[in-house]
UniProtKB/TrEMBL annotation:
Official protein name in the record: Exo-alpha-(1->6)-L-arabinopyranosidase
InterPro entries (alphabetical): Actin-crosslinking (IPR008999), BXL (IPR044993), CBM6 (IPR005084), Cellulose-bd_IV (IPR006584), Fn3-like (IPR026891), Galactose-bd-like_sf (IPR008979), GH (IPR017853), Glyco_hydro_3_C (IPR002772)
Record function comment: Catalyzes the hydrolysis of a non-reducing terminal alpha-L-arabinopyranosidic linkage in ginsenoside Rb2 (alpha-L-arabinopyranosyl-(1->6)-alpha-D-glucopyranosyl) to release alpha-D-glucopyranosyl (Rd). It is not able to hydrolyze alpha-L-arabinofuranosyl-(1->6)-alpha-D-glucopyranosyl (Rc).
Protein keywords: Hydrolase, Signal
Domain CBM6 positions: 878-997
Amino acid sequence: MPLRRPLRRPLRRPLRRPLLVAAVLGLLATLPAIPAGAAEEYPFRDPALPLAARIDDLAGRLTLPEKISLLHQFQPAIPRLGIGLFKTGTEALHGVAWSTDVDNGGALVTAKGTVFPQAVGLASTWNPELVKKVGAAVGDEARGYNAQNPRVWGLNLWAPVVNLLRDPRWGRNEEGYSEDPALTGAISVAYASGLRGDDPRYLKTAPTLKHYLANNNEIHRDTTSSSLRPRVEEEYDQAAFKPAIAANAATGVMASYNLVNGRPATVNPDLNERVRSWTDQDLLNVTDAWAPNNLVNSQKYYATLPEADAAALKAGIDSYTVDDTNGGPTNQAITDALAQGLIKEADVDTAVRHILSIRFRLGEFDPDGGPYGKIGKEVIDSAAHRALNRRAAAEAMVLLKNSRGALPLPASPGKVAVIGPLSQTVYTDWYSGDLPYQVTALDGVKERLDARGTVTGTEGVDRIALKDIATGRYVTAGTGTGGAVLRTAAATAGPAEQFDVFDWGQGVLTLRSAANGRYVGYNWSNFVNDQVRPNGWFAQQQFKLEAQADGTYLLRYAGYETAFDWFGPNHYIKAGPDGTLTLTTADQAARFAKEAVSSGVQAAVAAAKAADVAVVVVGSSPAINGREDHDRTDMNLAEGQRALVEAVLKANPRTVMVLQNSYPTTIDWAQDKVPAILWTTHAGAETGHALADTLFGDADPAGRLTQTWYRAGHRLPDILDYDIIKTGTTYLYAKDRPLYAFGHGLSYTTFGYQGLRLDAGTVRPDGTVRATVKVTNTGKVAGDEVVQLYTHQRSSRVDQPVKQLRAFQRVHLAAGETRQVTLSFPAADLKLWDVTRRAWAVEKAEHDVMVGGASDRVRARTTLKVAGEKIPDRDLFATTRAADFDDYRGVELVDETKVAGDAVGGTSTGDWISFERAALGGGATGFTASVAAAAPGRIEVRLGSPTGRRLGDVAVPATGGVYSYTTVTAPLARAGGVQDVYLVFTGDVRVKDFALTR
C-alpha cells in the first residue's frame, strides 16, 4: 500500500513562450527609465567594501514598499537609486531556453543558442568534468542573452533539476539526472559549478535547484502529497539536493508544486531550517510558477493570500513566481500580512537581504558589472560551443547491445540505409532553446561517408489520404509555410490531400502535410497545417484514427485530452457546411476512408534490402510522449515503430537500432533480436554528427545508463508511492534482474580489472575509504571505461540497499594500456538515518566493496570493516514520534501542524506501524499518546505482529479537527524483554507521538 493518496487535478504552467515574452515586454514598457544621473556613488556601489556592508547600505536606503516589491519574480527598477529591473527565472536546463525576443518594431524574433543534450543525456556521460564545461558554456550564453536583453533573460537560472528519477514513468524524466543520489549529486555539482563560474566572490549566473522536494509525478502534481518516511527523505531525496548547495555550486532551490507529508512544499520549513544549514552563503529560494496561489486555490491550505504568502516567507521563500509580470497582488498580500501581524518587517528584510546578496554577487552593482559583466552575445552558438555540444552528444550515447561485430561500422560500409521517423529531424523539448541549425541522423551519416558509400534515407511512415464518406471529398491542406485551414474540398487526392502519419504509441499520431511539410495542429478555432514539429505546452498536433466496424475511421483530436477536458465530449472531427474541419461528438463525427498512398514499411524494407547496412532511428517526441504535466502510462516503443524495426531486420540482418528518447523503454524484443542497439537522448543540433562519430567508431560509446531499465511485464508500484525501500524499486532495492542495469553500457573494446585493494581493511566513521584497481584496455582500439565502485553492508538494523554507488571515474585507455584507478569516498557516506534517535549513524559492520563497469558487472571485490556503532534497542518509554516507525501498512505521513512537524495519519481499519527491538525491560504497563481525529477511532497495542498479542486498546475521541491534538492514555498488560511493538488503527486517526509507561 502506498504511503499516500492521489488527490485532485494537475497544474498547468499558464504561459506559452510568445505569450510570456509579450506579457513581459508589455509590463516593462510601462516602467520608468532610470535617470542618467541617478547612479551616484553610493557606498553599495563600491566593490572594495565587504559584501555584508554593501547589502546593509542598499537595504537601508530602501523604503518598505520598495523592499516588498523585490519579493516578486519581476523586481521593478528603483530609479531614484539607479537600480534596474531584476528577473528571477531563466530556464537553462541544457542550454538557455525560450529564446524569443521582440525587436524594436515589436516583432517576435528568435535568438538561437546552443542546445546541449537533455539533462538525462548529460548525466549519461558519467563525466563531471565535461558536464561542468557544458554548464560553463550555458552560463556564458546566459550572460550573452542577458547582454542582449536583460528585461527578458535574467541571470537567476532555474537549473539544474535534481529530482531523482525514482519512477521511469515520470513525465519529466528527461529533466533529471539519475535514480541514484550520488550520481545526481556529482552531476548537479558539475553543471551548477559551470553555471556559477569559478570566481570566489562573483557569480557568472545564479543556479537554482529544482524542485524541492520529492517531485516525481505529474498526475495531480499540485495536490498530491509525497509521503516520505524519514529514511527515504534523509538518505534518498535530501541526498540529491545537498551536494550542490554544500559545494556552493547552486544559489538556492525552487519549491516544488506537490505537498510533502501533507504540507505544500511552498511552505516547507526545510527551506530555512534544512537547506540553508548546508552552506554559509546566502541562498535565494523561489516558488514554482503560480504556486503561491495554489496555497489558497487548488490546495486550499490557507484561506487568504496574505496568510499563504506570509507562511511561505517565514518558511524560507524569498521570491514569488506568480501572476506573470504583475507584482501587484503579491505586494498587496505581503502588505496586508504585515498589517495583520502575520509577519514582521524583519521577515521581509531577511528575504530582501537574500535577494540582494545574489544580485551583488552577480556584479550588478559594480561599476564595471563584475568579472563576467563584459560577456556579450558573441558567445551564443559559438564554434567552441558547437564542438562541445558534439562531444557531449557523443559521450552521452549508450551502447545497449552489440553482437556479431555489428558496430562500429567500417569506414567504407557500402550502401547504408538510414531509416525511421526520427532519422530526418532533430526534436527539442519544452526546456530547449531554438536550434540555430540541425544535423539529423541522415545528414550525419551522409556527411561522414561522403563519396565512400551510397546513403539512402526514408522515414518509414505511411502516407495517407482521408476521404469524407458522406461527400466523397478529401481533407485538403494548404501550401506554403503558413498552410491553410483544413477542409474537405478536393475530389481527388493530390499532394495537398496527402499526409504522412507518425506513430507515437497508444494510438496517438501526428499528421504532416505532404503539401508543405508542416504538421497539422489546432489553433483553438481551426485545424491548420502550419507547425514545424509537434510543440507547445500540450502538443496540439495529436490525433487518433479510430477504426469502425464498417471499415471507416473516426478522426479524433487528442491534443489536450490527456490533461484537461477542455472540449467535453467534442473530441471528434467533422466537416462543416463549407467543408471546414471542426470539433464535434463521436455520434456526429465524419466517417473517413483511410486511403493508402504509400506504405512506410514497404519503403523501409526496399531501402534495407538494397543496402549493406540499415540504421533504423526510432524513439519519442518530447512534446507527445512523457513530458511536463503528463506521466507515461506505457513504457513500450510505439507499436508502429516496433513493426518498422522488425520489418527492416527481417529484410536486412545487418540492422542497427538507434533508440532516441528520454527514458527507459521496454525493448526486450529488440534485445533478443536486433544485433546492435544504441541509445541516445534528444541531443541537440549536433545529434547527427555525434551519431555518425559513434556509429563509425570515431567516438567510443562509453555512456552509461543512469537508471534501471525494467523488463517487459515488470510491475511497478503506484507512481505516487515514494517509498523505494518498501516497494523494492530503483537499483538500490530491486532484487529482480532488469533488462539493463543501472550503470550499464558497452564499448567497442573490452576491459580487464586486477588487484583491487583498499588502503586499509578497517575504517572509522570519520575516515576515508580509498580503493585502487588496475584497469586494462584488453581490446584492439582505444576506448573509455566508467569504473564504478559500489558497496553493500552485510548486516544492519535496517534493510540495506542491494548495492549503492559510492564513487566512479570515466577513464580513457589506449589499446593495451593499463592504468591504476583510485576511487575514494568518506566513510561517513556509509551512514544511515537512525529513526530510533533521529540522527545519522554509521553501524559497525562488514561491507562488500565492488568495482566494475556496471552495477551488474562486478569485476573485482573485497571486504571493508567499518568500526562504527551498534544502534541500541529502542527506548519507547521516552517520547517517540510516530513518524519514526520501522515498518507500516497503509498509513501515510501527514502534517502535524501547518507550520512544522510530521505525524502518522491517513489510517483506516487494520493499518499499522511498527517499532522494532523495543527494550521493554521489566515490563510496560501503560500507554500515552498525542492524537487528533475528526471522528472517534481506536489504537491497539500489540507485540510481534499486527495480529500478535494485544497488550491493550486506547480509545481516540473526536478532537475537533486534524490539528487539534489531545492526550489519551490506556493501561497495558505487562510485557517485558526486547519486543517489536505494533500500533494497529481503527478509523482515521492522527498520531503525533507516544510513550510507554511503567
